[in-house]
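Changelog note: in this version the structure field was regenerated for every chain. One regenerated record is shown below for reference.
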Amino acid sequence: MTTKMTTYATSGWVFFAATVLFVVGAMNIIYGLVLLFNDTYALLTEQGLLVFDFTTWGWVLLILGLLQLATGAGALAGQTWARVVGIIMAALSALSMFPVLGANPVWGLVILSIDIIIIYALAAKGGEVEMM
């Protein structure tokens, strides 16, 4: 009895997007943990960033980062759902960086730029994943 293993040949863009999802997810996890454990790290005002306090924002970034890691793994496995979720996660991550721009403009712009590249890679090149 033989079992047939299905493997996926991902395009370079999809592999890049999945890898960057891992990196951005890890960065969001780190930044979320920093905000959870040191709420004066990015302190601008007493009200916090946007309408959230730092603890809430830390949890948002931590959960978003974990979802990005899972989505990156799915994209590497050639899952169609991962392309859609990856685009959504990158868009949410990009939106989550706007309040951070006031506290850490360089960090916010770097993550925002990476998210835009992920959206392009998954939207324009995601259909190039083939089953082998």
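Spot check on this record: Residues 29 and 62 are 4 Å apart (CA to CA). The chain has a mean pLDDT of 77.
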